[in-house]
Design a protein that fits this description.
3 helices; two-stranded antiparallel sheet; mainly alpha; 2 strands; flat; 11% strand
Length: 107
């Protein structure tokens, strides 16, 4: 075997080499955790929203009448929407998996 690049651009290593030499080492850096930064930005925006929208509003639902802060109503709607999105996505993915499995069984 040669160490010439193959068609996909990777080189072929020595097949008798220990596994440690064949696997690349993961980077040893402590990079920026972009998910955490995004969470901090979202938390700051949410905190500003809560402080600016803390007046109580009357809410009527069926036979219930009560007052609640505006931010509670908006966050409740956001939470309900996120949960509904996840449930619908779960059902859609399950249906798609069944369809793919049925197709695989036919072939």
């Amino acid at each position: 075997m040669t160490d010439q690049p193959e068609k996909d651009g990777f080189t072929q290593g020595d097949p008798d080499a220990p596994i440690d030499e064949l696997e690349p080492n993961p980077p040893q850096t402590l990079g920026v955790a972009w998910g955490f930064v995004a969470f901090l930005i979202f938390a700051a925006v949410a905190a500003i929203f809560i402080f600016q929208n803390n007046e109580a509003i009357p809410v009527r639902y069926l036979w219930y009448d009560f007052s609640v802060d505006l931010w509670v109503v908006v966050m409740g709607i956001v939470l309900f929407t996120l949960i509904a999105d996840q449930v619908v996505s779960l059902l859609w993915r399950r249906r798609k998996r069944k369809k793919i499995a049925a197709k695989a069984v036919k072939n």
